[in-house]
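> @MW can you paste both from yesterday?
MW: sure, first one:
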Amino acid sequence: MPAPDLPASGLTAAAHRIEQTVGRIVEAVAAIVLVAEILILGAGVIARYVLHAPLVWSDELASILFLWLSMLGAAIALRRGEHMRMTGVVARVSPAVRALLEAVATTAAIAFLLLILPHALDYASEERFIVTPALEIASAWRAAAIPTGIALMLLAAVFRLVRLHALKPVLLAIALTAALLMVFWLAGPVLKPLGRLNLVVFFVGVVGLNVFAGVPIAFAFALATFGYLGLTTSTPMLVMVGRLDEGMSHLVLLAVPLFIFLGALIGMTGMAAAMIQWLSALLGHVRGGLSYVLIGAMYLVSGISGSKIADMAAIAPVLFPEMQARGAKPGDLVALLAATGAQTETIPPSIVLITIGSVTGVSIAALFTGGMLPALVLGLGLCSVVWWRYRNEDLSHVRRPTWREVGRLGLVALPAIALPFVIRLAVVEGVATATEVSTIGIAYSVIAGLLIYRQFDWRRLPAMLVETAALTGAIVFIIGCATAMAWGLTQSGFSQKLAELMAAIPGGAWGFLAVSIVTFIILGSILEGIPAIVLFGPLLFPIARQAGVHEVHYAMVVIFAMGIGLFAPPFGVGYYGACAISKINPDEGLRYIWGYVLALLLGLVAVAAIPWFSIGFL
């Protein structure tokens, strides 16, 4: 969302004008980079599959632009306040304490950015000696994105402090942050001899304190990692910047912005509305019919977009007015919307699936194949709750469409319905990579919007491009920070100790799965999904293999567990996201959501107990 207006007086007015100017420039550049990324990857697809003359430089140039897009997007996300954070505690304190915590969240980010900026500049400078293989240019052109993005984030964070207006909490937050940094710096000689106890100090204490205080999760990870490496080891901080770069530079992550943009396109072009109208005609006349439509629409739309927020934003505005007109309670609507967010986490091209593939090495095609049936199992569980709650619904006023009308709407929706199946089939059958399919999907959606649905608002494109860049930056930056933290944990010997601990769990594979379910529900509610996956995926997936759990089966189990934590109150950020999209007070959904959560838990147990649901079609 845009930065709030400031009073037109003195220093704040000048700062506001500067912020608006810089913000618009950064947003414009990010939008141009995203368009260039789409065009280059699209050209690569045409050259490879149509002209049979692959462009050897296209992937390399796209990866360079992707790092720039991610860092610019991270700066935009920080300016807009869109980095992932846990607000469960912040929302429940007094206004004065909340103002202080909001200021601390920004000063903590500023502290990390100031600490890492010199090392990021050194890293970019070192990269000038490396030449890229295809384009034969200095790698510094790519690495320069990191210090540039950090500098822009630093600027955005300073402007956020100015926007807080109240001087007292800002000064108090600056003093508190500076004091904590000084305490840790002075305690360095004491911390070093503590050995592995420092893992608790930094990766439990520092991370936990920052997360619960509302500091964006990426910066909580980054501060803990910087403190651990800088105060207790002799590791050069260039290494941390290198791990950040490595985490943000997985080639498979190129698909993330493309699928996010694709999700925005299907909403703007009317493709999502066409699918929902057909499902409504098919099921709207039965008891609880529109709730079934919501579950089915999330299942279908999730097969096009990789972003749950985009999925919910495409569906809720279309369905909710009619559902409320039929007497559905707003709390039940938002509860079901949040539950379907958790239920559809494994439907390809889920960004979580792509992330797991990038950090664990599990085949993306196998994950895409394995994700369909488990989501259907959990969907049936949600349908059972809907059936029970709406078994006495009065439908005397609802007209049943004729089969001719259903068929006509089905024909209109067919181009939209075909897209998710084309995406899955192309990746699963190895015809194209996830990134290539996403570019094809974008071209398909543009053509469908222009020629079939005659709905394409060119004026909305700039905002869609900027929103895609911001969400991409928030996701990819947190992946980079979590990768650096996971590397620090691995170097400390934590992964070996964790393997020994998990191997000692009674019950073998079943005990391991049970502990993993509980762990990821908690992690999902506190850290959100992607950070939890990036941080613990590389550590736990090898242990799962040793315990005899198939990696695709394990992926489905932990994704659903994480999703339940993410979309369940009181801490799950996804639940509050669903409430924001629906414009419904979160308190209204609390009465209704637990039935859906129970159905999801029972479905998760079934998926964990019956591996065939996940690996039967591999």
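MW: second:
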Amino acid sequence: MTAFLGVSASATGRKWVGLSENDDRLAQSIAQQTGLPATLARTLARLGVAAENATAYLAPSLRDLMPNPSIFRDMDTAAERITQAIAKHQTIAIFADYDVDGGSSAALLIDYLRNFNIPATLFVPDRIDEGYGPNEPAMADLAARHDLIICVDCGTLSHDAIAAAKGADVIVLDHHMGGETLPPALAVVNPNRQDEDSEFGNLCAAGVVFLTLVAVNRNLRENGEKTPDLMALLDLVALATVADVAPLTGLNRALVRQGLKVMGQRNRVGLAALSDAARLTSAPNSYHLGFALGPRINAGGRIGKADLGARLLATTNPDEAQAMADQLSQLNDDRREIEAQVRLLAMEQAEERGFDAPLVWAAGKNWHPGVVGIVASRLKETSNRPAIVIGLEGGEGKGSGRSVTGIDLGSAIATCAREGLLLKGGGHKMAAGLTVAEDKLEAAMDRLGELLRKQGADKIGPKDLRLDGSVMPSAITTELVEQLEMAGPFGAGAPAPRFALPAQKIAFAKRAGESHLRLTAQDANGGRIDAICFGAFDGPIGPMLENHKGQSFHLAGRLEIDEWGGRRKAKLRLEDVAPAE
């Protein structure tokens, strides 16, 4: 495909690519048949929306996209057991993972059960001391004090731990890839069980929990009982879906779209307090969930108290919420410092091995296990390859991996675990975790690389920057941005629209903070647009534009609305740049 604006190698080394000929024709068809603006039509075409479906796509119906929960294996059993526990006012414990998805899933259940005056016990394992998922001592202890244990965002591979929960029923509500056998739980509801054939494998755990509550509500109504308003819980489902990088297509897109509306009402005191701590000045969008709120909630599980995020999301006490939000924000600042140190070492090590291998990996003594997943994401973004980062301590390594589109990292790690090269490991296509004996580290990484090579990971080229078209500053208005947002929410599986601004002069450029750049671009007709480039001085963009010497540049990025100071205006979030020759 011809490079857009002739940019075959931008400042960040990427080729700029516009719409294909087929998508271009589809965009014209959408605009003609619907009367939608050409810019929005191009975004819809790139997302693969047919002209006859365009209007419906802009207003997705959750009711139309929701499946009957009973299509999932064990769902009816799980829903009936929870219904029974509510009717008998039994004691219930929730064992949750320590990330956003686990915390949101736990908060969903706590909030729901609160309607029946059932104070569920929350247990979140410590990432360092206990590791991921149910463990035998914790499950045995919970079973001794509760009638029912619900494991959320974990448990599918926890055979021994669930067997230890003697005297209590255990329900697993999860989405991680299942093994050849299931644990001895009463019910395992998981769209990624090996014997599942549903089309909903992209749901996060909170999505699975939500569907379970739909089934419970149905049971309660059949029994003549009043039921809680599940729509009010969709803010938690939206947060988890975006933070867990689940594809924002189909049902997920509808859940997030509705959940963002619920979140905008600020009825959940924990999320309201966290939004204030993150200094969000506008209605929440998927970017805020993934890059402002999500990292703060994760910070508790990464380097602080593991259950802090879940407790924040579940609390109804505004003062408690404010204190926890402030604590999580401080932990997030601390996490950034730790991450920066590990990232520097990991980047150096991975670069020495080469970024062109099917697997990019790094391991180091005493690297904090709470940040290895984030650093793996940075390696993945730099190399456009699956990446794993491992912290070594006491003869063992605990690591986290992130993959790229089209490469199933979770299945490769599961294979290595079955082959005995890993002490344990699992996850899903785009993210996975592992524990490995230090003396088997090299062999395990070699085998993983071999498995990923068979999937074609070594043949992935530099990541192209895909653009929906070009636009001039004078055409970039708040109305245009609002029109484009109609095609959202955007995220994994549904990338946000990106546009090029051709041949711009740099009218103003100034460093902001340590690594960001604020600038104003101006075209030949005098049209201007303010822009921000985050992390500009971590790469070549900052120095290039700060020392522009009057040169013209093609700019590329996302269009946003800036509401700072109460004034609404359009701006560019700059992501790439190329000299305009």
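> thanks! The chain has 20 helices and 18 strands.
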